[in-house]
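Input record (Table S2, row 334):
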Amino acid sequence: MKIKNGLIDSIGNTPLIRLKKASEETGCDILGKAEFLNPGQSVKDRAALFIIKDAIAKGTLRPGGTIVEGTAGNTGIGLALVGNAMGFKTVIVIPETQSQEKKDMLRLCGAELIEVPAVPYKDPNNYVKYSGRLAEELAAKEPNGAIWANQFDNVANRQGHIETTGPEIWDQTDGKVDGFICAVGTGGTLAGIGMALKERNKDVVIGLADPMGAALYNYYAHGELKAEGSSITEGIGQGRITANLEGAPIDEPFQIPDTEALPIAFDLLQHEGLCMGGSTGINVAGAIRLAKKMGPGHRIVTILCDYGNRYQSKMFNPAFLKEQGLPVPPWMDK
Ligand code: PMP
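Output record (4'-deoxy-4'-aminopyridoxal-5'-phosphate complex):
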C-alpha cells in the first residue's frame, strides 16, 4: 500500500541509517533506527499508539475520553497527536526542567499542560505520581471518563516495540544483527526490542547505554540501584526497575557521560546531517562502546530517538552549555 490512511498508519516503519563515523571508528556496521522520522518526531509515538489501542481494547478509554500522562515531553506529544486523530483529549504533566520547545509543541498540539517541580520519584509530587492522582480525579469528573497512560509501568508500551520496532529491525537486516543497545527512560524501547531480537536469535547481544544520574548501570553491572553524577539529556535516566524493564535481557551495561555523548551528537549533525537530541548521543556512544567490546565485523543497531530542534535552547545553545560546564564545539560558538 503506497497511501497511508491517516496519522495512525504513518507511525513506525522507519528507515535504518548507517552511521558513517561510528562505523569507520570501530570497523563495525553501526546502524541507527530513525525514530525521529515518526510523525511526532520521536520514538515515543509507538508507545503512545499501543497504550491508547490497549486502553480502547480493554474498554477503559471510551469515545471522547481523556488521556492523562506524566512525561518528559515526547510521550505527551505522541499521545496528543494520536489523541487528536482518534478523538481523545490529553492532559500532560511535565517536570518544569524539560525543554521549552517540547512544552511549546505540547500546547501547539492542543494538550492541557501542567508544569510541576522536578522532584525525585519518591516524592508524592513527582510528575509521574501527580499524573496518576490527576487521572483518578478526572476519571470521576469527566463525562466520558479518563485514563492514566502510565507509560513506565504499563507494558502496552514495550509491547509496541515487541510487535513493531524489533521485528522491523530484524527484517531490515535480514536477521543479520549482532547487537542492539539504547538508553532507558521507561525501558519500553530497550526491553521490547531486546525481547523481540532474542526471541529470533538468542545470541544477539543487548546493551544498556545509561546516562550519568541514572541507577541502572550499577544495577545491571553490580546488582545495586545506585546513581552518581548528572546529565543534561532528557527523556532518559531511570532510578528503578519499571514494569517495562522487568525481564529485560540486558547483557552489556555501559555508563556514558555527557562529555562523551554530546560531541557525538554534534558530529552527527555537522558531518552526517543528522540533527538529533542528547539521548541519541548517549545511544550512539553506547553503540561505539559495544562495538569496541565485541570487536570489528559486527553489526550493531541503536535508536535515533528524537529531533534535535527540540533542544535548540539547551544542548545547541552555547550559553547553556557553558553554564553547565560542558565544552562548546567551535562551529557552534560563532
Ligand atoms: N530518548 C528520548 C528523547 C525520549 O523522550 C525517551 C522516552 N522517555 C527515550 C529516549 C527512552 O525511551 P523509553 O521510554 O522507551 O525507554
